[in-house]
Design brief:
Layout lengths: L3 E5 L7 E12 L2 E6 L4 E5 L1 E6 L4 E5 L2
Parallel strand pairs: 1-6
Antiparallel strand pairs: 1-2, 2-3, 3-4, 5-6
Length: about 60
């Protein structure tokens, strides 16, 4: 199972917004993240980059 950490704009401890992300849903200018236990977080922005093997998702936000 590939779980990821989601970050805003860049990878750093300060920009991490959710751990154990298993689902990423993109719609218009919003990205919804869902973690292993079903918690959902919707962020205004777009998917910038994701690496499932390295376990990260970067969202482009303002």
């Amino acid at each position: 199972m590939c779980l990821s950490t989601a970050y805003k704009n860049e990878i750093s401890e300060q920009t991490a917004i959710m751990n154990n992300v298993m689902t990423v849903e993109c719609s218009d200018d919003q990205v919804t993240l869902i973690d292993l236990i079903g918690r959902r977080m919707t962020v205004d922005g777009k998917l910038l980059k994701a690496s499932l093997t390295d376990g990260y998702v970067i969202l482009k936000t303002e």
